[in-house]
Amino acid sequence: MPKRKYKIAVIQLNLNDVAENNLKKCISWVKDAANKGAEVILLPELYSSHYFCQSEDVDNFALAEPLYSTSFIAFSALAKELGVVIIVPFFEKRMAGIYHNSAYIIDTDGTEAGLYRKMHIPDDPHFYEKFYFTPGDLGFQAIETKKGKIGTLICWDQWYPEAARITALKGAEVLFYPTAIGWHPKEKEQYGENQYGAWMNVMKGHAVANGVFVAAANRIGLEKYIEGTEGIQFWGASFIAGPQGEILAQASHDQEEILIAEVDLDLQENVRQNWPFFRDRRIDAFGDITKRAID
């Protein structure tokens, strides 16, 4: 029988380093999380490098890796060694000219439980992801692992209730969001609090609307590598929320941390019985949601 309770972990890190060093760092932190009792462990978006999407530069494609190469080999062995599930977000080279912002879901025996490719791709100042990433083509998924049935979405996917809804309807107990989001330093004083608040509130809303646990792993630190720019100050504040939007664990804005919380499926079922949002959905009236605009 599936476990009714299991522990999940979010790892918040500064990843402004080369791939080899970031890999060693993440392996160390995953081991630490497992030693603290975590059974499903989430790393931040694009774990292996600095956030290179601050510019449009073809040289950055060299940071990508083919499927089942460096990241998969390392974390597959680690997952099997520790007996944990690891969500590994990475820059995927599918073929020359086609790249994805992806995540492996690696099961406790080291096998691939699933692969997710980021569906929503942003294009904002210093978040020029459309230059690098082809939109995902694997859809929204709830993935069976030996610890639980989980869904992985990535960063910009955070803002879309449709993505959370479909993933939850497919049976995901937890929505995991590997993330790389921060402030433009010039904007932080004026807009920073509202930007961060909106980010957190929309995901708490997904937890409430779908009766699921939500876990978001962000990076920290100022990443300033382009001459003449102020870079991006990643705001951290990773968190885990329960199915009523309650905060179970919250990280700081500027420290490397591990957050651990318990997923309680009996609690989830109780919340859904008392707030039966799935029961009362008017699916007969939602046809217009597939339109770009209702003119």
TrEMBL record:
Gene3D superfamilies named among the record's database cross-references: Carbon-nitrogen hydrolase
Xref: CDD domains: CPA
The CN hydrolase domain, residue ranges: 6-265
GO molecular function, one term: N-carbamoylputrescine amidase activity
GO biological process, one term: putrescine biosynthetic process from arginine
Keyword annotations of the record: Acyltransferase, Hydrolase, Transferase
Source organism superkingdom: Bacteria
PANTHER family from the UniProt entry: BETA-UREIDOPROPIONASE, NITRILASE C965.09-RELATED
Protein name: Acyltransferase
